[in-house]
Each structure stands twice: as structure tokens, then as C-alpha cells.
Amino acid sequence: MAKKTYIKAITEGIDIALAEDPKTLVFGEDVGKNGGVFRATNGLQKKYGADRVFSTPLAESGILGMSIGLAVTGWRPVPEIQFSGFIFEALDSIVAQMSRIRFQYNGTKNAPITIRTPYGGGTHTAELHGDDFENFFVGVPGLRVVTPSSAYDAKGLIISAIENNDPVVFLENLRLYRSVKGEVPDDKYTVPLDKANVVQEGKDVTIIAYGGEVSEAQKAVKKLAKDNISAEIIDLRSLYPLDTDTIFASIKKTHHVVIVQEAQKQAGVGAQVASAISEGAIMYLDAPVSRVAAPNSVYPFPQAENVWLPTANDIEEAARDTVNY
Amino acid sequence: MAEAKAVDFAKIKAEEGAAFAKPVQILDNDGKVVNKDLMANFTDDQLVDLMKKMVWERALHEQTMSFSQQGRLGFYAPTWGEEASEMGTVSAFKKQDFMFPAYRDLPQLIQHGATVAQMYLWSKGHVKGNLFDARALRPQIIIGAQMVEMAGAALGIKKNKERDTVAFAYTGEGGSSQGDTYEGMNFAGAFQSPAVFIIQNNGWAISYPRKKQTHAETIAQKGVAAGIPAVQVDGMDVLACYEVAKEAREFAAAGNGPVLIETLTYRFGAHSSAGDDPSRYRTKEEEKPWFDKDPLIRLRKYLTDKGLWSEDEEKKYADECKDDFKKAMKEADAVEPEKVTDMLKRTFEVPTPDIKEQIKKYEAKESK
């Protein structure tokens, strides 16, 4: 088994999906010959032909609207939105159209569409190239929202997402594309779409994170261990639906919880996790739910990014406060 | 001496719409044939069939408005005045073609395979209104969304190598202002997909008039920007609408790429049955010439002169249609209301854990 980058794992997953189902189509801005601006689809057009892997005109609503028409004529679209900040151009196609198709046709039609898009900050890109908008999609019935934090999960989750018959928003953390490497089998395997992952077991505090914050949590846990604080890390992987069973089982053990998200604190995934805990596991807590998140400003210009983004130090501090409450 | 001009923008502006300014017409307002060659394409049976379809649509409108006034329906967008545009165009398509209607296009959807009872269920907001036996999506509410979706279906049809098949979509001139309409045309043009875009220019987007909708002289010329051929047709002339749609379909189905059709029609009544009052925003003087162009009048005159039709026959047929619509309403009324439990079950192929819990809760609530 070779060590591969997060982005290479995604490419391999798409490659397997294209090889297994001739109805799978990969398209979006620059994804064809260029292999995508991040090279996530590198080499796929050469391998599967321009009929199945192709670049489109520059229009996000056109790309995702077209996905719906392709889906209802029997295809399995895997469109790419070049940066998640551009996705609002296509919000109608996602929120008002594809998420409702199964509902509207009583399950007689479906929309097996996997929308891939990079998200997340810390790469000093231009405005609207590194934002965190997962909050919007977790509030939409009919959509699954997934984000891997490791190379292994990236491959297994993208295959599951493409094979799923419901629309999936597949969020790829920009910072992790080339910074994360891991053991990734060459062959096909899947990671389930609605299961959280216990990244590291511990007994004193549960740190719940996802995407780019999982690696920050891992750094924090190492520091905590020096003071004999044993932290458990849960990577949500699935932002909708939430795997509350895994979350509650951990809290029953540790009695303390820190929820970490890179996105702004207002509303969002962390708030939903906190709410689920208050409904289902509050009696097991020895301290209030603690949250680490970005402040409620618009995503900052690159120069302020490193202060704005939640770091391992923020997580460590929150974990200590919670344990010592 | 006048300064030389690099470019005469005023001239360009004045001439932009010229290529589209002569709408295709076969019968004029008085039922006189203005294009003998095209008229020769029709058999007597076809002419009577198109007349019957328009009478059917007008009867559908009248009976449905009556149901609406009785409070027996939900959302309904009247089609009075648009019979030629709607029946003429839809009659040119085949069963295998994929239709993307908007909310005012229930009559075409019925002609394409849905039943009247199903459309009443759609109006009432019941899922069974969407489960029709026609290659079509449900009537679209977001006017423009169907244009990008249809472009995708047209590409899907092309990739499936389906022969003699196109995708076609309807919107109004208001929908032509939506970015998605351009994106749909541009994508279909770029991929040379078998798509037919039909924009029914009925003069008004609720209270906003066509002249203010766009400064373009015609809606048809918007096809130029997408590189697709376009045409204006007299939308009150069912024969012209049929012939143009037939040509468009054949052109697209033969692999020549998409076509845009602008039908010049008029909404005689309100935007919807939900309280819109056209007298707030338009005058009788504006309406009068359009009523004179009533699509039923001209074909009725032509057919009556030929001895192929009579007012008595028309009334009898309209009454028969209305009886059918009353039966359809009874059928729709007899359908049990939906359960929230069922809605939860169909949100995902396999319900998520949170939805499974909610299903249990609503099963208990709805079994009481």
C-alpha cells in the first residue's frame, strides 16, 4: 500500500467510479484536458474520453442545472464547482431542484449527482476561493454533505458518494489537498456516507471536528497528552446526517466535549452537533459543551487568515478549560 | 466636415432586431391564408384536430377557473388567449421527446401524456400530480430553471444516442430575463444538443410589460448571443406555431443543435387565480386588439368557410370536454391526502438515522 495525497486519493476514487459505471460523467470548468485547476481529474479525460470527462462553459448554474437533466436521462453526473465560493450561482439547482427530485416524484426519479467542490481556508487565496459554506447545505433536506479529512477517507467517501442515488455535496478541503498523505489501497473500497470516525481513542474529553480541523485537533491532543489529558477525536466526515450514536458513545465515556469547526461560529454544523448533544447526551456531561470556531466576520483577507482560523492552540485551550471546569 | 466614426452604434441598435421582425404567419386575424405554401402542408383532419385542441384548452381554462373560484384548487395559472401558442407547438413533438414545462404549461403537459386529474392534483399540491406517464418533469415554478435542466436532458439524449428525440422547454418572456435561460441556450449551443427553447411572449410578467422586460427589440434575437437559430412566430396562429415547432424539432433532432422559438401571444386574463387583477396595470385599449386576434376566431372562420366546422359542433365539443374535466376533478378529490410519514420516507433513497426517528414519531401520530 502506497502513501498518497488527499487529492490523489480523490482522483483514484473518481477513476474507479468511471471504470465501474459507463453512465458516470465528470465535468465542470477546466476538468477535461487541464485536469481541473487543482488536477483532481488529471488524466481522466485521456483515459475515458472527452465524451465522459469534459470541460464546460463557465457558468455554475448551467453546470448543475445540466446535471439534473443528465440525471433524469439516465446519467450519473459528478460535476465540479471550481471553488465553493462560486456555488451560489447554482444554489437554485441544488436547493430548489436536485435535492427535491426524489421527494417530488415519490422516489420514482432520483438525482444521483455528486457535486465536488474545494472549500476551507488557510491557503492565502483570493476572496471567495477559500470560504467555509458547509452551513448552507446541511440545512437542506434531501442533500447529503460529506467532507473527508484523510486520504484514505477521501477515496472511500468519493466512491460511496458517486454510487449513492441521492445528491451529495462532496466538500474537499483545499488545505488538505497536498498537505495530507496517508496509506491508500490501490483497489476499490468504500467508506460509509453517514458514519463518523473515531480517529483517536481517549477517555477525558471528546473533540469533535471535521475537514481541516481534524489535523489541528491531532496536534492539540499531543500537547494535552503531555499533561496526562487523554482526548478522543471524532471526525464527523458526514455533516448531514450526523452520526449521533458515535458522538454519544464517546461522551458517555469522556463526559466532556469540544466541538471544532473552521467555519464562523454562527449557526452551522457545530451548533447542530451541540443541539444534538443537548437532546441526547446532556446527562452524561460534566461540563458545558465547548465550541471552537471562527469569529462571525466575513471570511478574512489572506493577511488576517492565520489569526482568524481556529488552531491547535485554540482547541487545546478549550479542552483544558472543559476538563478543568 | 463631420468627424469620421469608427462605428455607428445607432445604426447597429436600430437594425439588431430586423432579422426577427417578420413573424411566421399562415392565417391572419380574419382567417385568410397569407402563406399558401405552408397551408398546403395541412390535411383537413389536421386542421380540425388543431381546432379541437384549442377548443379543449379553452374549455379546460374555463372549467378550471370555475373550480378555482369554488376554492377547489391550489395554484393555477390561466392559459386563456395562449391556445394557439401552446397547442400549436406541443402538437409538433413526439411521445419520446423530453418536455420541461413551466407552471402555465399544464395543457401541453396533458397533451404530452399527463391526465387532467393529475394536473388538478398538481395544482392542489399532491405528489400524485407529479407521477404522470409522460417523458417530462413537473411544471417548474422557478422560471428559468427548466432551461438549464432541459439543456442537460438534451445533452443526455445526445449521449444516449437516442434517435429522432429532442428535449423542449417552455417559459414566458419574463423567464427570458432569468440568467438560466441564457445559460441553457448557451450550453445547448456549445454542446450542439437537440434542444428546442420555446418562449411564449404573452406580453406581461404579472404586472411588468414586455417592453420593459428587455430593451431588445425581440426576445428571439437573444438566440444570437448563444449562437443558436431563432424565430418569431405569430403566437395567435396555431398553424404557424405548429409548422415552426415542427421545423425546429426536425432541425434539432437531425443533430444540428438547438433552436429558439418566440411566440407572440397574449395573456387575456390574470397571471394566476390567486388574486391578480390585470386592470391594475393594463388598459382596455391595449387588450382590445389582442382580443381581436383571438386564436380560436381565425381558425374557426377558416374551417367554417370550408364547411369543416360549426359553432354548434364547437359548443357541443366544449361541453363534452367540460364533463370530462368534472369527472377528472372528482377523481382528484377522491385521492387520499398525503401522509407526512410518506414524505419522510421518500426524502432519501434510504432514510437517514434522524429521519428514521421522525418516521416513527409521525407513524404514531398519523395512525391515531
Show the helix and strand layout:
The complex is a heterodimer of chains A (325) and B (368).
Chain A: E1 2-5, H1 6-20, E2 24-28, H2 44-48, E3 53-55, H3 60-72, E4 76-80, H4 91-97, H5 101-104, E5 114-119, H6 134-138, E6 144-146, H7 151-163, E7 168-173, H8 176-179, E8 181-184, E9 197-200, E10 205-209, H9 213-226, E11 231-235, E12 238-240, H10 244-254, E13 257-264, H11 268-280, E14 290-294, H12 305-308, H13 312-323
Parallel strand pairs in A: 2-3, 2-4, 5-7, 6-7, 10-11, 10-13, 13-14
Antiparallel strand pairs in A: 1-8, 6-12, 9-11
Helix pairs in contact in A: 1-7, 3-4, 9-13
Chain B: H1 9-15, H2 36-39, H3 44-69, H4 83-90, E1 98-100, H5 106-111, H6 116-124, H7 145-159, E2 167-172, H8 179-191, E3 195-201, E4 204-205, E5 208-209, H9 210-213, H10 222-226, E6 230-234, H11 238-256, E7 259-264, H12 284-292, H13 295-305, H14 311-333, H15 340-345, H16 353-366
Parallel strand pairs in B: 1-2, 2-3, 3-7, 6-7
Antiparallel strand pairs in B: 4-5
Structural write-up:
Chain A: Its cofactor is thiamine diphosphate. Chain A: Its EC number is 1.2.4.1. Chain A: It comes from Limosilactobacillus panis. Chain A: This is Pyruvate dehydrogenase e1 component beta subunit. Chain A folds into 2 domains: 183 residues, Rossmann fold (3-Layer(aba) Sandwich); 128 residues, Rossmann fold (3-Layer(aba) Sandwich). Chain A is built from 13 helices and 14 strands. In chain A, strands 9-11-10-13-14 form a 5-stranded mixed β-sheet, with helices on both faces. In chain A, strands 5-7-6-12 form a 4-stranded mixed β-sheet. In chain A, helix 3 runs parallel beside helix 4 and helix 9 crosses helix 13. The longest helix of chain A is centred in the N-terminal third of the chain and has 15 residues. Chain A is globular and about 60 Å long. The N and C termini of chain A lie far apart (44 Å). In chain B, 48% of the residues are buried. Chain B contains 16 helices and 7 strands. In chain B, 49% of the residues lie in helices and 8% in strands. In chain B, strands 1-2-3-7-6 form a 5-stranded parallel β-sheet, with helices on both faces. Chain B has a two-stranded antiparallel sheet with strand order 4-5. Chain B is globular, with a radius of gyration of 22 Å. Chain B has 2 domains: 329 residues, Rossmann fold (3-Layer(aba) Sandwich); 29 residues, no CATH class. By secondary structure, chain B is an alpha/beta fold. In chain B, helix 4 runs parallel beside helix 11, helix 6 crosses helix 14 and helix 7 runs parallel beside helix 8. At the A-B interface, helix 3, helix 4 and helix 5 of A face helix 7, helix 8, helix 15 and helix 16 of B.
